[in-house]
Amino acid sequence: MNLRVDDTPALASRVRRFSRAERWVHRVTALLMGVCVVTAACLYVPQLAELVGRRELVVRIHEWAGLLLPVPVLAGLASRAFRADLGRLNRWGPHDRTWLRAVLRRDDRPSSRPAAKFNAGQKTYAAWIAGASLVMLGTGLLMWFTHLTPLMWRTSATFVHDWLALTIGIVLAGHIGMALGDPESRRGLRTGSVSREWAEREHRLWRP
Q1: pTM to 2 decimals?
Q2: φ, ψ for residue 16, nearest 5 deg
Q3: What DSSP designation does 14 have?
Q4: Which H, E and C letters describe 17-84, residue by residue?
Q5: 193: which strand partners?
Q6: pLDDT tens sequence across 130-167
Q7: Please, are residues 123 and 89 in contact by the beta-carbon 8 Å criterion?
Protein backbone atom coordinates (compact mmCIF):
# COMPACT_ATOMS: atom_id res chain seq x y z
CA MET A 1 0.00 0.00 0.00
CA ASN A 2 1.60 3.24 -1.15
CA LEU A 3 0.23 5.75 1.34
CA ARG A 4 1.71 9.24 1.43
CA VAL A 5 2.56 10.26 5.00
CA ASP A 6 3.34 13.58 6.64
CA ASP A 7 6.95 14.68 6.31
CA THR A 8 7.95 15.08 9.96
CA PRO A 9 9.25 11.95 11.73
CA ALA A 10 6.85 12.52 14.63
CA LEU A 11 3.92 12.20 12.23
CA ALA A 12 5.37 9.42 10.08
CA SER A 13 2.59 7.05 11.09
CA ARG A 14 -0.14 9.38 9.87
CA VAL A 15 -1.67 9.71 6.40
CA ARG A 16 -3.10 12.89 4.92
CA ARG A 17 -6.82 12.32 4.22
CA PHE A 18 -8.59 15.68 3.86
CA SER A 19 -7.42 19.15 2.87
CA ARG A 20 -8.23 22.23 4.91
CA ALA A 21 -10.84 23.31 2.34
CA GLU A 22 -12.60 19.93 2.56
CA ARG A 23 -12.71 20.09 6.34
CA TRP A 24 -14.23 23.57 6.29
CA VAL A 25 -16.84 22.52 3.71
CA HIS A 26 -17.86 19.67 6.02
CA ARG A 27 -17.95 21.88 9.11
CA VAL A 28 -20.01 24.67 7.61
CA THR A 29 -22.37 22.24 5.90
CA ALA A 30 -22.83 20.34 9.16
CA LEU A 31 -23.51 23.61 11.00
CA LEU A 32 -26.15 24.74 8.50
CA MET A 33 -27.75 21.29 8.44
CA GLY A 34 -27.82 21.27 12.23
CA VAL A 35 -29.53 24.68 12.28
CA CYS A 36 -32.11 23.40 9.78
CA VAL A 37 -32.85 20.30 11.87
CA VAL A 38 -33.02 22.14 15.21
CA THR A 39 -35.24 24.94 13.88
CA ALA A 40 -37.49 22.40 12.13
CA ALA A 41 -37.88 20.56 15.43
CA CYS A 42 -38.78 23.84 17.15
CA LEU A 43 -41.43 24.48 14.50
CA TYR A 44 -43.07 21.04 14.53
CA VAL A 45 -42.67 19.70 18.08
CA PRO A 46 -45.23 21.51 20.28
CA GLN A 47 -43.17 21.23 23.47
CA LEU A 48 -40.12 22.78 21.78
CA ALA A 49 -42.24 25.44 20.08
CA GLU A 50 -43.63 26.53 23.46
CA LEU A 51 -40.17 26.49 25.03
CA VAL A 52 -38.50 28.56 22.32
CA GLY A 53 -41.34 30.85 21.24
CA ARG A 54 -40.69 33.59 18.62
CA ARG A 55 -41.95 31.39 15.79
CA GLU A 56 -41.46 34.04 13.11
CA LEU A 57 -37.75 34.36 13.98
CA VAL A 58 -37.30 30.58 13.99
CA VAL A 59 -38.98 30.37 10.57
CA ARG A 60 -36.61 33.00 9.12
CA ILE A 61 -33.52 31.27 10.54
CA HIS A 62 -34.73 27.95 9.13
CA GLU A 63 -35.35 29.46 5.69
CA TRP A 64 -31.99 31.18 5.42
CA ALA A 65 -30.04 28.20 6.76
CA GLY A 66 -31.72 26.03 4.12
CA LEU A 67 -31.06 28.56 1.38
CA LEU A 68 -27.37 28.78 2.34
CA LEU A 69 -26.92 25.01 2.60
CA PRO A 70 -25.52 24.53 -0.96
CA VAL A 71 -23.07 27.45 -0.60
CA PRO A 72 -20.21 25.59 1.18
CA VAL A 73 -20.26 22.83 -1.46
CA LEU A 74 -20.32 25.35 -4.30
CA ALA A 75 -17.44 27.26 -2.70
CA GLY A 76 -15.56 23.99 -2.18
CA LEU A 77 -15.53 23.41 -5.94
CA ALA A 78 -12.65 25.89 -6.06
CA SER A 79 -10.54 23.22 -4.28
CA ARG A 80 -8.92 20.59 -6.47
CA ALA A 81 -8.88 18.11 -3.56
CA PHE A 82 -12.59 18.61 -2.97
CA ARG A 83 -13.41 18.07 -6.65
CA ALA A 84 -11.29 14.93 -6.67
CA ASP A 85 -13.13 13.52 -3.67
CA LEU A 86 -16.51 14.28 -5.26
CA GLY A 87 -15.34 12.16 -8.19
CA ARG A 88 -14.37 9.34 -5.84
CA LEU A 89 -17.74 9.49 -4.10
CA ASN A 90 -19.47 9.20 -7.47
CA ARG A 91 -17.36 6.28 -8.70
CA TRP A 92 -18.45 2.73 -7.86
CA GLY A 93 -16.59 -0.53 -8.38
CA PRO A 94 -16.92 -4.27 -7.70
CA HIS A 95 -15.43 -3.81 -4.23
CA ASP A 96 -18.37 -1.58 -3.30
CA ARG A 97 -20.83 -4.37 -4.08
CA THR A 98 -18.71 -6.70 -1.94
CA TRP A 99 -18.86 -4.15 0.90
CA LEU A 100 -22.64 -3.89 0.68
CA ARG A 101 -23.09 -7.67 0.63
CA ALA A 102 -20.94 -7.92 3.75
CA VAL A 103 -23.15 -5.34 5.47
CA LEU A 104 -26.28 -7.29 4.57
CA ARG A 105 -24.68 -10.43 6.02
CA ARG A 106 -23.64 -8.41 9.08
CA ASP A 107 -20.06 -9.44 8.48
CA ASP A 108 -18.06 -6.67 10.15
CA ARG A 109 -14.58 -8.07 9.44
CA PRO A 110 -12.45 -5.42 7.65
CA SER A 111 -11.25 -8.10 5.24
CA SER A 112 -14.86 -8.64 4.11
CA ARG A 113 -15.44 -4.94 3.50
CA PRO A 114 -12.90 -3.70 0.95
CA ALA A 115 -12.93 0.06 0.44
CA ALA A 116 -10.96 2.73 -1.34
CA LYS A 117 -10.85 6.25 0.14
CA PHE A 118 -14.62 6.05 0.72
CA ASN A 119 -16.56 2.90 1.40
CA ALA A 120 -19.91 2.05 -0.20
CA GLY A 121 -21.83 3.21 2.86
CA GLN A 122 -20.23 6.65 2.70
CA LYS A 123 -20.93 6.87 -1.03
CA THR A 124 -24.56 5.90 -0.51
CA TYR A 125 -24.99 8.44 2.27
CA ALA A 126 -23.34 11.23 0.26
CA ALA A 127 -25.55 10.58 -2.78
CA TRP A 128 -28.72 10.34 -0.69
CA ILE A 129 -28.10 13.44 1.43
CA ALA A 130 -27.16 15.49 -1.65
CA GLY A 131 -30.35 14.48 -3.44
CA ALA A 132 -32.48 14.98 -0.33
CA SER A 133 -31.00 18.44 0.24
CA LEU A 134 -31.85 19.50 -3.30
CA VAL A 135 -35.43 18.27 -2.89
CA MET A 136 -35.69 20.11 0.43
CA LEU A 137 -34.36 23.28 -1.18
CA GLY A 138 -36.82 23.03 -4.06
CA THR A 139 -39.86 22.29 -1.91
CA GLY A 140 -38.79 24.94 0.59
CA LEU A 141 -38.68 27.58 -2.13
CA LEU A 142 -42.17 26.58 -3.27
CA MET A 143 -43.39 27.02 0.30
CA TRP A 144 -41.54 30.31 0.74
CA PHE A 145 -42.68 32.06 -2.44
CA THR A 146 -46.34 31.18 -2.14
CA HIS A 147 -47.50 33.64 -4.82
CA LEU A 148 -45.52 31.94 -7.59
CA THR A 149 -47.21 28.52 -7.59
CA PRO A 150 -50.73 27.02 -7.45
CA LEU A 151 -52.16 25.83 -4.13
CA MET A 152 -51.86 22.17 -5.16
CA TRP A 153 -48.12 22.57 -5.77
CA ARG A 154 -47.63 24.22 -2.39
CA THR A 155 -49.64 21.54 -0.60
CA SER A 156 -47.64 18.77 -2.28
CA ALA A 157 -44.38 20.57 -1.53
CA THR A 158 -45.31 20.89 2.13
CA PHE A 159 -46.12 17.18 2.37
CA VAL A 160 -42.82 16.15 0.74
CA HIS A 161 -40.81 18.69 2.74
CA ASP A 162 -42.20 17.61 6.10
CA TRP A 163 -41.83 13.87 5.62
CA LEU A 164 -38.42 14.13 3.98
CA ALA A 165 -37.28 16.32 6.88
CA LEU A 166 -38.21 13.54 9.31
CA THR A 167 -36.30 11.02 7.18
CA ILE A 168 -33.25 13.29 7.05
CA GLY A 169 -33.33 13.62 10.83
CA ILE A 170 -33.29 9.83 11.23
CA VAL A 171 -30.51 9.36 8.66
CA LEU A 172 -28.41 12.13 10.25
CA ALA A 173 -28.81 10.49 13.65
CA GLY A 174 -27.46 7.26 12.14
CA HIS A 175 -24.60 9.16 10.49
CA ILE A 176 -23.64 10.81 13.78
CA GLY A 177 -23.89 7.45 15.56
CA MET A 178 -21.51 5.86 13.06
CA ALA A 179 -19.08 8.77 13.49
CA LEU A 180 -19.17 8.47 17.28
CA GLY A 181 -18.17 4.83 16.91
CA ASP A 182 -15.09 5.65 14.82
CA PRO A 183 -12.77 8.12 16.63
CA GLU A 184 -10.07 7.90 13.96
CA SER A 185 -12.50 8.86 11.22
CA ARG A 186 -13.55 11.90 13.28
CA ARG A 187 -9.91 12.79 13.82
CA GLY A 188 -9.42 12.74 10.07
CA LEU A 189 -12.16 15.33 9.62
CA ARG A 190 -10.84 17.41 12.50
CA THR A 191 -7.11 17.40 11.72
CA GLY A 192 -6.95 16.20 8.10
CA SER A 193 -4.88 13.09 8.80
CA VAL A 194 -5.48 9.53 10.02
CA SER A 195 -3.27 6.77 11.31
CA ARG A 196 -1.61 4.52 8.76
CA GLU A 197 -2.90 1.45 10.62
CA TRP A 198 -6.52 2.68 10.37
CA ALA A 199 -6.15 3.50 6.69
CA GLU A 200 -4.72 0.07 5.88
CA ARG A 201 -7.41 -1.69 7.89
CA GLU A 202 -10.52 0.27 6.87
CA HIS A 203 -9.54 1.55 3.39
CA ARG A 204 -6.99 -0.91 2.09
CA LEU A 205 -7.70 -0.06 -1.57
CA TRP A 206 -7.00 3.62 -1.03
CA ARG A 207 -4.10 4.98 -3.10
CA PRO A 208 -3.47 8.66 -2.21
Answers
A1: 0.85
A2: -70, 125
A3: E
A4: CCCHHHHHHHHHHHHHHHHHHHHHHHHHCHHHHHHHCCHHHHHHHHHHHHHHCCHHHHHHCCCHHHHH
A5: 16
A6: 999 999 999 999 888 878 778 888 899 999 999 999 99
A7: yes
